[in-house]
Design brief:
The structure is a single chain. The protein is α/β, with parallel strands linked by helices. The chain has one domain (6-198): Rossmann fold. The protein is 36% helix and 20% strand. The protein starts with 5 loop residues before the first strand and ends with a helix. Bound molecules: guanosine-5'-diphosphate. Guanosine-5'-diphosphate (GDP) binds at residues 32-38, 52-53, 56, 78, 142-143, 145-146, 177-179.
Length: 207
């Protein structure tokens, strides 16, 4: 997919205030510091669309970006940052679960995991939550440039094995590196073909 335009639309913490139209949207989420802002900047070909910052836990809002004027990329706050208070963690959980449970336009989520680490409980639990809530998701492994090719294969394999302990099948997954521009086309192609399927389905339903 060629990215022709990528525009920031709005930030808020209330799902009811998100854009009202019916364009399909894709949500990006993961632990703080997983490389989400860098990935969004790589995907959209922008140096600074999502803020890349050294301060984990900084983006605490639902951020909508309009891509090619036909789909939304949604940047959600990073989870699992130890230094936020319990009350702000609760507030965070509430608006994120509200988003996932009420946002009809949400087509699919991308859960980002750092390829270097062993499967983390918080990520697996979050994916379980998505499964229970019947929200389709894919896994995006980030920072692949930090591992040698053999280690990439080994880590992905281990992750899949761990995943299959509680799931019957694997979700789509992508190996990426924002520093080395790896995986960009694959993720964008996935979004593009999903958008085409949605359009075809809407057409056949006459909606
Ligand atoms: P976020 O908190 O999830 O949005 O993560 P950021 O995109 O701000 O990245 C966190 C840190 O990881 C920063 O120091 C980035 O430079 C670094 N980082 C992000 N993506 C990559 C990557 O693909 N490769 C490498 N080597 N570092 C990365």
């Amino acid at each position: 997919m060629l990215i022709k335009t990528a525009e920031f639309v709005m930030s808020n913490s209330d799902v009811e205030k998100c854009p009202k139209n019916t364009l399909p949207e894709y949500a990006f989420i993961g632990r703080s510091n997983v490389g989400k802002s860098s990935l969004i900047n790589m995907l959209t070909n922008h140096k600074n669309l999502a803020k890349t910052s050294g301060k984990p836990g900084k983006t605490q809002l639902i951020n909508h970006f309009l891509i090619n004027k036909n789909w939304y990329l949604v940047d959600l706050p990073g989870y699992g940052y130890a230094k936020v208070s319990k009350s702000s963690k609760k507030r965070f959980q509430k608006f994120i679960t509200n988003y996932f449970e009420k946002r009809a336009q949400l087509v699919s989520a991308f859960v980002l995991v750092d390829i270097r680490h062993e499967p983390q409980k918080i990520d697996l639990e979050f994916m379980e939550y998505l499964g229970i809530s019947e929200i389709p998701f894919s896994i995006i492994f980030t920072k692949a440039d930090k591992l040698k090719p053999n280690a990439i294969i080994r880590h992905v394999d281990l992750y899949c094995q761990e995943f299959l302990k509680s799931w019957e099948a694997l979700p789509p997954y992508f190996v990426t590196s924002s520093s080395k521009d790896i995986g960009r086309e694959e993720v964008l192609e996935f979004i593009d073909s999903t958008n085409s399927e949605i359009n075809a389905m809407r057409k056949s339903l006459g909606t």
